[in-house]
Write a structure and sequence with these properties.
Elements lengths: L1 H11 L2 H14 L3 E5 L11 E4 L5 E7 L5 H16 L14 E6 L7 H14 L5 E4 L1 H12 L7 H11 L9 H11 L9 H24 L3 H21 L8 H23 L15 H25 L6 H10 L11 H13 L3 H19 L15 H12 L23 E2 L2 H10 L3 H11 L3 E7 L13 E7 L6 H9 L8 H5 L4 H7 L6 H10 L3
Parallel strand pairs: 3-4, 4-5, 6-7
Antiparallel strand pairs: 1-2, 2-3, 7-8
Length: about 550
């Protein structure tokens, strides 16, 4: 059955969808991938550059579908560039003749085989290596072989895989279901696993994730694809940390996953910057919480991508267009629950880094006041949903509530009773926000709010096993609660906020600090005082 699934994916994907899985396949075969095309100018037909086991450079051109004699004639100029133009990449000599391959998920049909033979004969006389053709049947065999034993074998796990694989790709990714799927075949429950088996397990996870995300990618559902790759990146780091894996066993796959995230966020950013409005459809609700929720997700991911790029190169960079959109639109954001808080924080941090201190701190202060107002314990409502409730769950419930109200009353309705759970009197993110304001010397604001703050309990779930921070559910997690001191010494609060250390943050999340903005978007329930302080420290250039 899995072979049919892989064959279905392979047959229906295009060269962009094939790119990361093929790179993972190369890695499995012992190649070291050095370059993956972003399909910009100046790449001379080289979609992928890699070194084989003998350190021989290879350049690959990826195509989708069957290659007939007509399509062969059409792509021949690209292949001439692929062969004739030397590889321009640090560490690879331009004098070294590189090996080349045409890769397709289809087959060579008709006279295309003759065309390639004649092509190779001509270039062979001039001393060039042969152009190889890697076709769909060969790729299918290789992909199936790579998976080996690392497949979801239990019926419920395979059913979960099929549900994810067959999704239409228009909705947000069901993160909990996807996380459970990854756990179904990644060996977190074992005490010891051979390192090469872990490497192969991670490679298989990359391929399975590619299959699942294909429908979202085809619909340009950038956020869903980013969340899928981000969840996988987190699980890879979890395996690496749990089993103390050296980077050679996992770093290649991790970098491929991060490439997938970067590509999606680049496309997302290009689309956003190219738009002159953000309203979708003509429905009544799009001007209400749906539009504002979409703006929150949009602005949060724009800010996260810009912060990610800064952290990756360890240098402050600014994009005037992104800054303009964030400044113009941040008032259109919507705090549907605490799962939206990381998006606000990232926007605030980006504004702050670009000299907009007042607007950045306004966002933080409004968040604190909103949480206090919504979760004040002596209210009849149930309060602001905690970070374990995602935007779709909350908005779906609000729509159900609205069905019994007139059009005139819809703008006035509050959340109603989301669940039997009450969120009054507690918050998972309030302490983090308070410490951020303290580090920014907002003493007067905190002094004015402190009496109300003391009515709200600070919740914090910290996994005993640090690597479980990377998972959606931390089985070793312990929920701690406390309330703010009444009264609180400013000196004590400032000292605690200033000297907060990342004692519960896993090691690779510290080392891969560029992943932190994305990590907090994907895992809003992992937003804690120490993770945010680590992010702030990393952004000090």
């Amino acid at each position: 059955m899995i072979e049919r699934v892989i064959e279905n994916w392979l047959t229906n994907t295009n060269e962009l969808g094939l790119q990361i899985p093929f790179c993972q396949l190369l890695s499995h075969k012992g190649y070291r991938v050095k370059f993956i095309s972003r399909h910009g100018p100046g790449e001379q037909g080289k979609d992928i550059i890699a070194l084989d086991k003998r350190n021989k450079p290879w350049a690959f051109q990826l195509k989708s579908g069957n290659i007939s004699v007509q399509s062969w004639r059409k792509i021949r100029p690209q292949l001439e560039e692929l062969i004739e133009i030397p590889i321009h990449f640090p560490g690879i000599s331009k004098r070294t003749k590189h090996q080349t391959a045409l890769v397709t998920n289809g087959q060579l049909i008709g006279d295309a085989v003759r065309g390639i033979d004649d092509f190779n004969l001509s270039y062979g006389k001039r001393g060039f290596p042969t152009l190889e053709a890697w076709v769909g049947t060969q790729l299918l065999t290789d992909f199936v072989e790579l998976h080996g034993q690392f497949l979801p074998l239990e019926p419920k796990d395979f059913q979960r895989f099929l549900e994810l694989f067959l999704a239409d790709g228009t909705d947000l990714l069901p993160k909990i279901k996807f996380s459970k799927f990854l756990l179904s075949f990644m060996p977190f429950g074992k005490r010891k696993v051979a390192k090469n088996n872990l490497k192969r397990n991670i490679a298989s996870a990359v391929l399975l994730t590619s299959y699942i995300l294909e429908s979202y990618r085809k619909k340009d559902n950038y956020i869903a694809v980013v969340e899928g790759w981000g969840l996988l990146a987190s699980h890879v780091l979890a395996l690496a940390e749990k089993f103390e894996l050296e980077e050679k066993y996992w770093a290649g796959s991790y970098e491929l996953v991060m490439h997938g995230i970067e590509k999606q966020l680049e496309n997302f950013k290009d689309e956003i910057l190219d738009r002159d409005h953000f309203v979708e459809g003509d429905g009544l609700f799009d001007g209400w919480i749906f539009y504002r929720s979409r703006m929150t997700i949009t602005l949060g991911h724009l800010a996260a991508f810009e912060l990610y790029k800064m952290l990756k190169i360890k240098k402050k960079i600014s994009d005037a267009n992104v800054l303009r959109i964030l400044r113009e639109r941040f008032k259109e954001m919507y705090l549907w629950g605490e799962s939206a808080v990381p998006m606000y924080l990232l926007v605030s941090l980006y504004l702050e880094l670009n000299g907009n201190q007042s607007e950045a701190e306004t966002i933080l202060s409004l968040l604190v006041q909103a949480i206090i107002n919504e979760n004040y314990p002596y209210k009849e409502e149930e309060g602001m949903p905690n970070p374990y409730y995602d935007v779709e769950t909350i908005l779906d419930y609000k729509v159900d509530i609205l069905k019994s109200y007139t059009i005139e009353a819809r703008k006035l309705i509050d959340i109603g009773n989301l669940t039997d759970e009450s969120f009054l009197g507690s918050s998972y993110s309030l302490e983090t926000l308070i410490e951020m304001l303290a580090r920014r010397m907002r003493r007067q604001l905190l002094n004015r709010l402190w009496r109300d703050i003391t009515y709200i309990q600070f919740n914090e779930l910290v996994p005993k096993l640090k690597w479980e921070n990377y998972l959606w559910e931390a089985k070793s997690g312990k929920l701690t609660t406390r309330k703010a001191s009444k009264p609180e010494s400013w000196a004590s609060l400032f000292e605690r906020a200033k000297n907060r250390t990342p004692k519960s943050v896993p090691a690779y999340l510290e080392k891969k600090a560029e992943f932190l903005p994305l990590f907090l978007l994907i895992y809003p329930h992992r937003l804690r005082p120490d993770t945010v302080k680590l992010l702030e420290d990393a952004l000090t250039f």
